[in-house]
Design a protein that fits this description.
This protein is about 45% helix and about 15% strand. It has helices spanning about 1-45, 70-80, 95-110, 140-150, 170-175, 200-210, and strands at about 60, 85, 130-135, 140, 155-165, 185, 190. It is elongated and about 110 Å long. It binds flavin mononucleotide.
């Protein structure tokens, strides 16, 4: 009889501990799921920094042959809500960097200029204009420079930007000089192409545009 009572009590205690263990396990798993969901929403949610409105009606003109300046320009469009214009060459150039360097080197040697087919846009309705170029041979890429010949920025506020493999050389300074009749703002920048691979690109571009002095 004594043994029976002991067994009953023991079973009750065992049952209590088992129940407690199962409930704790379920709670931990629910917390983990909630945490994972929050992280996913954080990663996929709207960008934390946006500069929409800061640049009013704006235009982003750029040249890009291997995609880096294009990625930057598209990210700027996402951040500012601007219009995009890509400068296109008359002859198709290779997208592969090695072939492109070879071809442009040969054209240089032969004294042949790269021509562009993109017409000059009417910039009169824009508050801000961004002009972007890759760095080629330490200078503004030839198609960007070719496009800018005869382009009149009509006293508009213009921001120069671009991408390079390792550094701007004289590309940034030269670009700001060939923006005819522009009020060139100081916050322009040539970024390294490495930054274009950064998962935080949108935030970095937002921070750059939000911190820029607009006078
Ligand atoms: C013809 C050519 C010349 C280049 N010359 C330079 C250079 O002098 N300095 C540099 O840092 N990067 C140089 N680069 C690398 C580019 O500036 C860099 O990859 C840039 O992000 C390319 O822009 P895109 O992808 O928009 O065309 C050169 C690339 C090419 C194709």
């Amino acid at each position: 009889m004594g043994l029976k009572i002991f067994m009953k009590k023991f079973s009750a205690i065992l049952f209590f501990f088992l129940a407690f263990f199962v409930v704790s396990l379920a709670q931990t798993s629910a917390q983990d799921t909630a945490r994972r969901t929050a992280q996913t929403e954080d990663q996929n949610g709207p960008p934390k920094l946006i500069a929409t409105g800061r640049f009013g009606k704006n235009l982003i003109i750029y040249f890009s042959q291997t995609g880096n300046t294009e990625k930057l320009a598209q990210t700027m469009k996402q951040v500012t809500g601007g219009d995009l214009i890509k400068i296109e060459t008359q002859e198709k150039l290779p997208d592969n960097e090695k072939e492109l360097i070879e071809m442009t080197t040969n054209l240089k040697k032969a004294g042949t200029n790269i021509k562009v087919k993109t017409p000059h846009p009417d910039v009169s309705g824009y508050d801000f204009i961004f002009v972007g170029s890759p760095v080629w041979f330490g200078d503004v890429a030839e198609p960007t420079a070719a496009f800018l010949v005869g382009m009149d920025f009509m006293g508009k506020k213009v921001i120069a930007f671009g991408t390079s493999g390792s550094g701007p050389g004289q590309a940034y300074d030269h670009l700001t000089k060939i923006l005819t009749n522009a009020q060139v703002l100081e916050g322009g920048q040539i970024f390294t192409r490495r930054m274009m691979q950064s998962p935080g690109l949108e935030e970095e571009v937002s921070a750059w545009l939000l911190n820029m002095t607009l006078e």
